[in-house]
Specification:
The complex is a heterodimer of chains A (about 425) and B (about 270). By secondary structure, chain A is mainly α. Chain A is built from 16 helices and seven strands. In chain A, α8 packs across α11, α12 packs across α15 and α15 packs across α16. The N and C termini of chain A lie far apart (about 65 Å). Chain B folds into two domains: about 45 residues; about 180 residues, Orthogonal Bundle (Cytochrome Bc1 Complex, Chain D, domain 2), CATH 1.10.760. Chain B is mostly helical. In chain B, β1 and β2 form a beta hairpin. Helix content of chain B is about 45%, strand content about 0%. The N terminus of chain B is likely disordered. Chain B starts with 13 loop residues before the first helix and ends in a 27-residue tail after the last helix. In chain B, α11 packs antiparallel against α13. Chain B has a two-stranded antiparallel ribbon. The chains are: A mainly alpha (about 425), B mainly alpha (about 270). Chains A and B meet through β5, α9, α10, α13 and α14 of A and α1, α2, α3, α4 and α5 of B.
Chain lengths: ~425, ~270
């Protein structure tokens, strides 16, 4: 028999329950507080008439800096009408309709509500927004720039296209889960210029960190999809691992600390520079966004990127390829690749990327090398390079073993040195 | 994503130096080469920046012609040299098709109206102007055609195919192929493709793609409507007959349609 009387037992039980309820209430209150911090009361400043043509034009420019159209448009669909699916490890997020249609777009939003979405990550109806919409970056945008983008979007023709619900796995689809995520990882913030740095560095920092949201791809994400400030710009996988966005800080990857400013500008403006060319998702960024930016803004971004503190990439601890696989790779190279990339992997300037000494070939992640061999592609056509040269896809004509062998070969020929690529990896990237 | 190189022409490789040097020595060599290259470029008065690739051209082992044929070499791996793919494979010949048709298809692939992952990825970041140039290049290639495939259908089916191609079936609102694709079936300028000289499987694949919604054209999508009205045996008969016909000596598209087309098609200027 128990020594405790039924009354005492009930009291302990009630007390535990009370503590539990109070604890939960405190956590909920904390999460709610953390989610709403930094929000100003709906600041509906009476609009001083319709926005000027200049404001709209500036908004159009800023929307290009952010490449809003890239996610908020389905290929071939009306601009900004949304619907494009963004693959994440948690499911698919469907971009929303940003056109001026009042029913399905944001035609009935106010500039203040748009600002709250950009700065605080909350929708007009109060729902928390998923950070696939990069408000952890956009939060630093100025109110003036937000208003200009809003004015531009409102000036665009309406397109009727109802938003498609996201397809997220449990529990990521719950607003409560998102509230916890935001409590942990999101804090609204204004851009703070660094008085110790020159004006162009500060302008560059604003563009790169805020609207340009470069770190959204070029940073690793933790298991909940958040970017730790310390690892900003140190590279991360993209599109479920189909691509790797290289580190902007590592000299072994895409760091530009040793580049001339003009070359960094050229890469963003034309898609090519003497040291590098862009392909895949970065080609999209150049095609839709950076080629349209002003020379001054590109220079500012270049100044900021060049000054990023160098941080070596993680050591490549993969295995060395076997002699047999290198021999197989050399045979594939001579038959399929040497015609354009040259017998010594020297490439042809402006047309075919050199492979000898090329960081994209030798960096630890083999994702982009394999992706290029599988899919081929063109660098983007830009005003500065309107007729880019292309590489054919080899996914249909070469098997996994041949692709692995040739990738291992180009990573280790002509003075290059990198880990082998296995047929299993190629299969995974297919 | 980035293809970057520290030594554009790579004078500092183990092979070019013919010495088994350690990586450190190669790096030093590259450094020296880079400094020398910069000095040379400066001496030659070559501006660095957007035009910088030219500064490195001196190191190129092979010069690449600045021609459209060279820049679209990527296409010919699948579509054959100069776009001359034959009915031996699945992929269509593109050489000599009307430029407007090719341009429309490039747009359709890029903008998601036609679905082929390889084509969409290749074209994703190419401008309208460049796509038009590519289309005009392949349209301008004039090459003889190989003989057609042997028919793989019964004489009755072939006769049914020939009837549909030449006369259509008014009762089922099926216009003849010839009414739009030209009396010789070699297409009509500027945007209606010829139907001969293509692999049977490719032709059948297109009907399947229209019927299942994988292939679209600019609205109104006339071929999708026509494919919808065709029965499987119609499709088999038509593609077998088309694939078994030789291409006439003059394979060029007709300059204009002989009579007003029976339907409106979004991709074809009216």
């Amino acid at each position: 028999m128990s020594a405790t009387s039924p009354g005492t037992g009930r009291r302990i039980w009630l007390r535990t329950l009370a503590i539990l309820v109070a604890g939960i209430a405190a956590v909920v209150a904390l999460v709610a507080f953390l989610n709403l911090r930094g929000e100003s009361a709906a600041d509906e400043v009476a609009a001083s008439g319709p926005p000027s043509a200049e404001t709209i034009e500036r908004g159009a420019y800023l929307a290009r800096v952010g490449n809003c159209v890239g996610c908020h448009t389905t290929p071939g669909g009306p601009d900004y009408a949304g619907g494009r699916g963004i693959e994440t490890p948690f499911g698919t997020i469907y971009a929303s309709n940003l056109t001026s249609d009042p029913e399905t777009g944001i035609g009935d939003w106010s500039a203040g509500e748009f600002w709250r979405a950009m700065h605080n990550g909350r929708s007009k109806d109060g729902r928390l927004l998923y950070p696939a919409f990069p408000y952890p970056n956009y939060t630093q945008i100025t109110r003036e720039d937000s208003d200009a983008i809003f004015a531009y979007l409102q000036s665009q023709p309406p397109a009727v296209r109802p938003n498609r619900p996201h397809a997220l796995r449990f529990p990521y689809g719950l607003q409560a889960s998102l509230a916890v995520w935001r409590a942990l990882y999101f804090r609204p913030a204004a851009f703070e210029p660094d008085p110790a740095q020159p004006a162009d560095w500060n302008r560059g920092a604003y563009l790169v960190r805020s609207l340009g949201h470069c770190g959204a791809c070029h940073s690793p994400r933790n298991f909940l999809g958040a970017v730790a400030p310390a690892s900003e710009f140190t590279g991360g996988p993209l599109s479920a691992g189909a691509w790797y966005a290289p580190s902007l800080k590592a000299a072994e990857e895409a760091g530009v600390g040793r580049w001339e400013i003009g070359d960094i500008v050229a890469l963003m403006q034309t898609g090519q520079s003497p040291q590098a060319s862009t392909i895949g998702p970065m080609a999209e960024v150049v095609f839709r966004s950076t080629q349209h930016l002003s020379e001054a803004d590109l220079r500012a971004m270049a100044v900021f990127l060049k000054a990023l503190p160098p941080q070596p990439a993680a050591a490549d601890d993969g295995a060395e390829p076997s002699a047999a696989s290198l021999e197989q790779g050399r045979a594939v190279y001579e038959a399929q690749c040497a015609q354009c990339h040259g017998d010594e992997g020297e490439g042809a300037p402006g047309a075919y990327a050199p492979l000898a000494g090329t960081r994209a070939i030798t960096m630890a992640s083999s994702a982009n090398v394999v992706r290029m061999i599988l899919d081929g592609g063109f660098t983007p056509s830009t005003t500065g390079n309107p007729r880019p040269y292309g590489m054919p896809p080899f996914a249909h004509s070469l098997g996994n073993a041949d692709i692995a062998a040739v990738a291992s070969y180009i990573r280790n020929a002509w003075g290059n040195q990198a880990a082998q690529v296995s047929a299993l990896e190629v299969m995974r990237y297919r | 994503m980035y293809a970057s190189n520290k030594n554009a022409a790579s004078p500092c490789t183990r092979r070019s130096l013919r010495m088994p040097l350690p990586a450190g020595a190669l790096r030093v060599c590259r450094r020296i080469a880079a400094v020398a290259a910069t000095a040379l470029a400066g001496y030659a008065g070559v501006a660095l920046g957007a035009a910088a690739p030219a500064a490195h051209a001196a190191h190129a082992a092979h010069a690449v012609p600045d021609t459209i044929g060279q820049s679209v070499l990527a296409c010919v791996v699948c579509h054959g040299e100069e776009g001359r793919a034959t009915p031996d494979g699945y992929l269509p010949r593109i050489a000599g098709k009307p430029a407007g048709y090719l341009y429309n298809q490039l747009l359709n692939f890029r903008d998601g109206r036609r679905h082929n992952a390889a084509m969409s990825r290749m074209l994703a970041y190419l401008s309208d102007d460049y796509l038009r140039e590519i289309a005009e290049y392949f349209a301008s290639v004039d090459l003889p055609y190989p003989p057609p495939q042997a028919p793989a259908a019964s004489p009755a089916a072939l006769a049914h195919g020939q009837t549909l191609v030449r006369r259509g079936d008014a009762a089922r609102q099926l216009p003849s192929c010839a009414a739009c694709h030209g009396p010789e079936l070699t297409g009509v300028e500027p945007a209606v493709p010829g139907l001969l000289g293509l692999p049977r499987d490719y032709l059948a694949g297109q009907f399947g793609a229209w019927k299942t919604g994988l292939r679209h054209a600019q609205a109104p999508d006339c071929m999708a409507e026509i494919a919808e009205r065709m029965r499987p045996d119609d499709v088999a008969a038509v593609v077998n007959w088309l694939a078994s016909q030789p291409v006439p000596a003059d394979s060029r598209p007709a300059a204009e349609a002989p009579e007003p087309p029976p339907m409106r098609c979004g991709g074809v200027p009216q």
